[in-house]
Amino acid sequence: MAWLAALALLASPAAASRVCSRADVAPTEEGAPWTLAGCTALNLSCAPASRDSACDGGLRAGEIAPLCDALPHAGAELASIDLAGAWLGPHGAALLGRALAAHGAVQTLRLRSCRAGDYGVLALVKELLAAPPPRLEALDLSHNSVGDVGARELSVLLEHDALPSLRHLDLRWNGIGPRGGRYLGAALASSQRLQSLALDWNGLMDRGARALGDGLAENTALQFLSLEHNAIKNEGAKALALGLRRNGALQELRLDANGVSRGVRDEVAAALLAVPEPPQSAASDRPREDPSEIEEISFDDEAEDEAPRPAAGGECRDFGPWECVEQNCPSPSIDCAMLAELGLCETRFDEIWEEAPPQGTAGLHTAEKCRKSCGQCGGRDEL
After folding, report:
1. Which of 315, 309, 319 is nearest to 345 (CA)?
2. Segments in the chain forming alpha helices (H)
3. What is this structure's pTM?
4. Which range has the worst mean pLDDT, 4-8, 110-114, 162-166, 225-229?
5. CB neighbour list of residue 312: distance below 8 Å, 6 or more residues apart
6. pLDDT score for 350
């Protein structure tokens, strides 16, 4: 299938006459520029043979800036970049986004296991929205601790067709829950460009699957959707089947390891193969909710279970600021207002400060130390 061949772009920088490694492009003298001339693919991924072995070919600490400086001057033949395993940080993600737009020829970008998190995705999306890379076709953000906030930002790219060439998105092994599934479902309903979406090993559950089913009912482009290991049960699978009855584009839907019964799996398979029903037929099965009402509901019932809640009692105030001296830290110190503005109220401090979280914050969510900035003052928790 055509989409399956295209999806392979995310797995390998193949179809290249010269795949450059770190030894080919990194300078031997400190401060010298990187040389990317003649490279059709750049592989700076870190894939050590064992957990104890070093990764000599991967992008090293402090090298993202010189690499991004060199990228706009690379030849137009450079079409694939693999930085899997590099630690980008939000600053590095922003630099990379700008460099991609300046170069303009990259088609495949693989950022697996770069510890981007929502913070890094926010920075990357901001740059991609400002100056979209014109030819970016495949984006791999798997295994990056991306949550619902990151899913929301990525859905903006899809909904507004900010990356007109993007066809393949890999978000496996992240932390996207039902709310993030809703953002992506809305994006599928409005965007008609994406051809493959991989969401294995997230936490979509039935409500996320229902939102994706609603999106599929309006989508005419997606050909491959993988939802394995997402705690989707029969209710969510039936919602997917309902959406598939109106969808004539999807060719493969993967639902293994979700606890869906054989009977419901057969129902989904039949819906996938069936001739699409006209809109009025599907609407008679389940009335569609008014968009304004959907926005008002916004899954508040599930949010009450999922969102971190501060401990009851005590003065409702913000703590911090906290020192931030890690590599690529965007500021010498970070306060509650900045964390809230970046949408990190549901993120743990030890995910934001990966090396050494501020004293007394390990294991805590931002909302527990930033009650005021995160809107926890005078809310239901204090009634």
Report:
1. 309
2. 2-7, 22-25, 64-70, 89-103, 117-130, 148-159, 178-190, 205-218, 234-244, 262-273, 279-285, 291-297, 300-306, 336-341, 349-352, 366-369
3. 0.71
4. 4-8
5. 381, 382
6. 83
